[in-house]
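ok trying again, last paste got cut off:
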Amino acid sequence: MDPAEKGGCQKSGQMMCENDIGLLIKQISNLVRMRIDTELSAYDLTFSQILVMRCVEEAGGETTQKAIEQALNVSHPTVVGLISRLEKNGYVLSLSGDGKQKSKRIQITERGRQQKIQLAENRKKTDELLFHGFSESEKETLRQLLNRVYLNIQCAETTAAPQPCGVLDPCGNCTAKDRE
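nice, full thing came through this time. structure:
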């Protein structure tokens, strides 16, 4: 019997269990991150730094350090390090808040804006690679399914008795009525 039929792993560059969706998601994430980080290294940037810049840009070009932490769901020290490196390379400015580190305002610079425009083409190429052969309908279905998986995980982490529910209020709290 073929190992794939038994739910086993096959060798194709690295181990991948076809029946383990979580592992497949992790492997895809790793490959995409490595590809993007390789492309970004020419600009002395990382994928995580780009996410910070996107967060600032989407907030109108300026936001607080705390808002970045919450939007990216990462720790305070992680955001401090990312912002420090971005500021050192001239992509963002840190402006004083009310004296607290977390209330520091972060502002994207003109260099940061220009870099994001240049990197938009890289992102388009990566998306084309990821979704090669997908119809628009298939892409939308995948997006909806992945959003449901994300909501289930987020909901399980925000409730006392972790259970997938898939229905969250804007604050990330589970709102499903049939959770018993």
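cool. Residues 136-158 form the longest helix (23 residues). The first strand starts at residue 9 and ends at 11.
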